[in-house]
Predict the 3D structure of the following.
Amino acid sequence: MQTSVTTIDRFINEQEDQYPAATGELSSLLYDIALAAKLIAAAIRRAGLVNILGTAGAQNVQGEEQQKLDVFANETIKNCLKHTGRVCVMGSEEDEDIIPVPTEYEAGKYAVLFDPLDGSSNIDVNSAVGTIFSIHRRRSIDGRGTSADVLQPGCTQVAAGYVMYGSSTMLVYTTGQGVHGFTLDPTIGEFLLSHERIVTPRIGKYYSVNESNFGRWDKGTQTAVRGLKGDTPDVVAPKNSRYIGSLVADFHRNLITGGVFLYPADARNPDGKLRLLYEASPMAFIAEQAQGSATDGMNRILDIVPLNLHQRVPLVIGSREDVGFVADTLRRVAQRASGPIAQPAL
């Protein structure tokens, strides 16, 4: 019987030992996030028993109806991070502005952004939901932290990850040294290493997209999705459709088995719907570290410089060749639509 186990705490510390200059603060911050994930997982498991399912009777800054668990998850993460002395400022999808560390606590050298409960519309039907987080080094010199600390491109992230609350609770993260997954053992209350150095297949089995928006997509997106469905088998192998409606759940499945997730711009959401800082950038960091790819259709997600806290962006993410097919199709159709480039007169 296999009795050797590696907890997330032990794994993080062993990774840190490989870098003599490491101070241990980032490792401790990751463990703080793991603690918040345990608390949220426990609340989700008993949600129907303690009357925290359903709406909270308010809307978040995005204009979306808040679920009671949204509010609980948001407060839990803030409470697990604000007193540690490791964080100077936070940003949450649920809060309109940045969240400086209260003055009674020491301000640290990291900025943390998070989507506390991704896919919360799935809560009432007992489907998978998740938490997404992103960590940057602060840019401000002192004080409580500023918007400059969170308005950084994804390529400057020092860590990113997500927690999926499904049939089991799983935490997946990267610090730029590969992607690692840990499954929560509820009998001992610890995250145990279950997926070391995840590498996503270059070509996947699935495509994940909300096809009810098909009529609002531009021609390039429609052409790309038709190709994924099997219209151009000589260019891309036909794929099966899988869509849960939670970025974490759809991304996780495609990360493990291979596939591509799309949330393109459409006539109703011309800038896309997903948030750059809370969703696209951290997931893009994970995808690239797992040898996948992420783009807004034209640009690498990790190169996009955010202009505001709740900036939205189209997202194509997953297996490298599948993402490449979608991006190439979008470019090709856009070039055809714009017509030939006029040559200068001689």
In short: Confidence is low (pLDDT under 50) at residues 341-346. Helices lie at 8-16, 25-45, 68-81, 147-150, 219-231, 247-257, 276-289, 320-338. Residues 273 and 312 are 6 Å apart (CA to CA).
